[in-house]
Amino acid sequence: MDRSNVLLEKSVGSLLLEFSIPAIVGMVVNALYIVIDRIFIGNVVGAFAISGVSLTFPIGILIIAFALLIGIGAAACISIRLGQKKRDEAENILGNAFILLIISSVIVTVLGLAFMDPILFSFGASSNTIEYARQFISIILAGCTFQIVGFGLNNIIRAEGNPKMAMVTMLIGAVLNIILDYVFIVIFHFGIRGAATATVISQAVVLIWVLSYFMGDKCLLKLKIKYFKLNKNLVLSIFAIGMSPFVMQVAASAVNIILNKSLAVYGGDLAIGAMGIINSVVTMILMPVFGVNQGAQPIIGYNYGAGQY
Known about the structure:
By secondary structure, this protein is mainly α. It is about 85% helix and about 0% strand. The protein has twelve helices and no strands. The chain has helices at about 5-10, 10-45, 45-55, 55-85, 85-115, 115-120, 130-140, 145-160, 165-185, 190-215, 230-265, 270-305. Helix 7 packs parallel to helix 10 and helix 8 (about 145-160) packs parallel to helix 10. The longest helix has about 35 residues, at about 270-305. The radius of gyration is 20 Å and the shape is elongated. The two termini are about 25 Å apart.
């Protein structure tokens, strides 16, 4: 039986619990690893290192913005197509989303590395923090394809009716990141580069895991080469739905930039670092809300497609 049929047959309350709890667990654990990341950096590398990493936070938000633009947009479109019993169209959207995620990640990498120093100084970097920020974000940008593609496709795993697998994907990335943080920062003393390398490696493993899922036997939708050719109408429909979370992320990044520049003027480098720590903790507190959002999306999309308004 089509696994996504449960989205039509079970009660809304049961579905929300079944889909939201794994999403909440995955999101909270991912936010927790960011906090632990900051703990390692602050205690082993130093306070200015925390400030340097905090300066790169707006870039990190923008990276996630592109993953959400395509991942959320494609996931919603796929949920609707599955509700309409149009599996081939859903797989076509998956193929288009995969290519879009790769293209966007390459653009982010090239532009980010090309204009890295001007961007960081415009964000409020100083002589104390610029080297830390440069060391961290250069590695993150070089490997952001892993994050954008992996995070984007993970939304589609949930959309096809497999919230537990989507949770496992996030747990794998978070736990591996924490372990590698300890190894690279505490044992090998790689400093800020160690934190960034741990993040990129864990995201690469997540991407391999997600791709193996979509090419294996447990998935409802499969990645097929014949759908890797971009379809204008599908691309526009993905962007139409994904534009809302994308713009919200861009706005959040802009707010963070303004805040960091103000802190640089009125509080200095350590104030930027302190705000970075606060942002990490606040993000963890907000994750349950995002989890409920992510859990509700495939339920709403599938039933909308099936005409069960």
